[in-house]
Amino acid sequence: MNLTTQDSKEILNAVQSLAKIQINQNLETYRYDVLNILYEKLSYKSPLFWLVDNQKNLVNPILFNIEESTIQEYLQYFQKHDPLHPKNIKQIQAIQSITDNVSEKEYLNSDYHNLFMTKYNLRDEMAIYIQVNNIYVGVIGLLRENNELKFNLRDYTKLNFLVKMIENGFIFNLQSSALVIPSTPLTNREKEIVIEIAKGKKNHEIAKQLFISENTVKKHLQNLFQKFEVRNRIELLYKLNNQKNPVKK
């Protein structure tokens, strides 16, 4: 699709703004800043940014121009009917609209449209899915009201320029965020290794820092992966980051 000069300027401004927040050191601040960029640079008036847990549940939303009561009702009654919920999507692409998953007729006749979207004067929604190693870890939702146009190919094209940048920033800030201990406590050595992982260090660098062998580092990592039922470092950091008690760096 051919973009207008204005479209190109908006994309460039958004890319430049995203570049400035890639190293925020805080995942919550990063998520808010991404929403602010989508609002200010691309005129998406009502975005929100969810985290996705290991069961594909939507958790811990950051809202922009959306009432908390709206989201509470969504979580309590309507998320299971949302065609763009991670548990319901039928496609794998990073950017999706409602009609990528259900027909227009099916959507307009659904409880989700008639009892939720209509109640809050919402016409359409689109989602950006953030994945790490093919696992959903975040979703950005974009909403449009009845007085706005439906999402179209121009929106897909513009957002497609930003998806990988948003995803990379999410992963970096996930690694840099304050880590937390789950209900099953970490040993002191495991805490030390997790903190070094969050700094992006490799096994041999961790071994040198902690004065242990590289094989010992690998053994501790295997134990951590088993303890938290994860397959790699990114999944481990993500799971730790969504627990309650902070581990101070």
Explain this structure.
The chain is of the alpha+beta class. Helix content is 48%, strand content 18%. It has eleven helices and seven strands. It has helices at residues 5-20, 27-42, 68-78, 104-108, 111-117, 153-160, 163-176, 188-198, 203-210, 214-228, 233-241; strands spanning 46-52, 58-63, 95-97, 122-132, 135-145, 179-181, 245-247. The strands form two sheets. Strands 2-1-5-4-3 form a five-stranded antiparallel beta sheet, sandwiched between helices. Strands 6-7 form a two-stranded antiparallel ribbon. The longest helix has 16 residues, at 5-20. The protein starts with a helix and ends with a strand. 29% of the residues are buried.
Outline of this structure?
The chain has 249 residues and is of the alpha+beta class. The protein has eleven helices and seven strands. Helix 1 runs antiparallel to helix 2 and helix 9 crosses helix 10.
Please specify the SSE layout and strand pairing.
Blueprint: H1 5-20, H2 27-42, E1 46-52, E2 58-63, H3 68-78, E3 95-97, H4 104-108, H5 111-117, E4 122-132, E5 135-145, H6 153-160, H7 163-176, E6 179-181, H8 188-198, H9 203-210, H10 214-228, H11 233-241, E7 245-247
Helix pairs in contact: 1-2, 2-7, 9-10
The overall strand count is: 7
User: What is the number of helices?
Assistant: 11
Oligomer state equals single chain
Mean of pLDDT: 90
Percent of residues in helices comes to 40-55%
Terminal CA distance: 47 Å
Largest sheet: 5 strands, antiparallel
Low-pLDDT ranges: 244-249
Proportion in β-strands: 15-25%
